[in-house]
Amino acid sequence: MSFRLARNVFEVLRGSARPRSLERLRREGHRHVPVLKFSDLEALLSASVEDTLTRLGLELGDKSLQSLNEEARLRFLALLKEREELRLTLESLRTQGDRLDATTEGVRAEIQRAESELQQSRSVPAGTADADLAAFRARLRAGLELVLAGLSDTDPELPARALAAVDAEVENYRILLAARLRQEQAAHTEQLERRLHRLRRKLEESEELLARARAAAAQGLPALVELGPALGPGDADYARKRGLLDEVFKLNVELRKLIGAKE
Amino acid sequence: MSTRKDETRKPDPAVEAGEDGICWVGMDLGTSRTAVSSSGGVRENTFSLVGYPKDVISRKLLGDGPLFGADVLRHRLSLNVYRPLEAGVIKGSDDGKDADDNMRAARDLVRHAIRLARPEKDQLVYAVIGTPAQASVKNRKAIIDAVRDEVDSVMISSEPFTVAYGLDRLTDVLVIDIGAGTTDLCRMHGTMPGEDDQLTIALAGDQIDRLFARLVRKSHPEASFSDNMATQAKEKFADVSPNAAKAIVKWPVNGKPTDIDVSKEMKEACLSIVPPIVEALHKLIAAFDPEFQAVLRGNVLLGGGGSQIKGLGDAIADYMDKHLGGGRVVTVEEPVYAGANGALKIARDMPKDYWEQLS
Q1: Which pTM does this prediction carry?
Q2: Phi-psi region for residue A236, left (φ > 0), alpha (ψ -120 to 50) or beta?
């Protein structure tokens, strides 16, 4: 293996490694930590290829063996890079998830605002101008009555006809105004409903994206636990730990008996 | 890469479990989150939420099966939602209220958690499940009933003990496990902790959330927010250290997203659990051999989801300084998985014949 390739592999390995303090490793019961060297890495990769060939009972010529070795090394490097890329992708997914979270929150607030606006718009009565019109009609009638009272030789039915004509026109105007107001209100409500619909769709999309990002982040790269060997004689504290395990077991046996007795 | 084996080790027929064919699982069934670690190298966690479609339309949209974790939050309006665990045990297992529904949800949740552990189809599943220190026999039975069909053998272990075992801190150490429903405290002195060594207090993450929401509603009555939003804010900003960054949330005020500074309320709510925890620590320390009380005070281990509140370990240590004459608190590095990892370690270390006797 070339020095450059070994260094590449080493760098990728180092990049994917999680730093652990010596204190923590000690606490977790690690007494030996593997130290990686370029030469060890090179030897390890070659040895694994040769071991596989031996176990499969395959014999290859030097040239084929060399080519297989190179292929294995390159594949190993590619896999490490792939995993690193996956890790970076997942990190970016998590960041995107955080951003989407903020967007979703914003959209929810927008929806709330639009809903309250819609409610307000629906609760405004269409005939708010009626009172103004009634006052206007009363003033108009009073003015007209005053003018007609000043005329001496007029038809005695003229004031009543004139007032009726005023009433009819004002009523027509009221109906026209109310219809226009209703139309405007309906248009405004429709606009708000359309906006709400769009916002809800946006919220749904954001939530879906968020869930997908989270699911991908959760499933894409299983968090792997590096398990040490199980407890065995010769381990520090073996006798005491074994004693504790015996006690956990006994407590569970007692629990089963209690459960059995109750059933 | 191969791991060099300790040459001083000899196989113990009683302990050598034979890795092939068995998937060991450590599970922390929490009120808020369920975490699982397996000997296959997987560790996963999910919200302890189970949702069943409400009606025909929801079933058409979401399918027949139950939904779990984040999916439940997403489709909550179309689901009957269950949070089957309360104070670390299955709801209703003591008083029988809604016991059947919660048991069904717990069973489904366990099934889901086992699936997350990804055992091979032909592997036997041996699981250790952490329960609160003072869970009753009924509660433990309910948990065993819930997992019985999903695993081939199961053992129950006190949650703080699993944390201590996982971290190899078995002597003269006090473990505090702050969950969502309860805070468990356990005194470890090299032997199996007895009832006198364990305390459970009903003050934990959920109570912090409720107090935080109450304080914000009082100081910012104009702000509109749900309990879920308050919990999310806590998860994002909880920090009780002296130089904590400001906790500013963007919540609607009259329908308009508005920046609201909730730092004071957040700190007050998070710190509210410190005095009762130290009081419980005091009880456990005071009842211990006087010669070792100082050692115990200097070895407090803080774990559980609640330990993710930044600066909480120092806040507890400060309070211990003032009221107990000193103390040192270390926060575990992976609070979400500490219980599950410890349970997995117990499962792997447990002799195989013990598993067979309980299967």
Answers
A1: 0.60
A2: beta
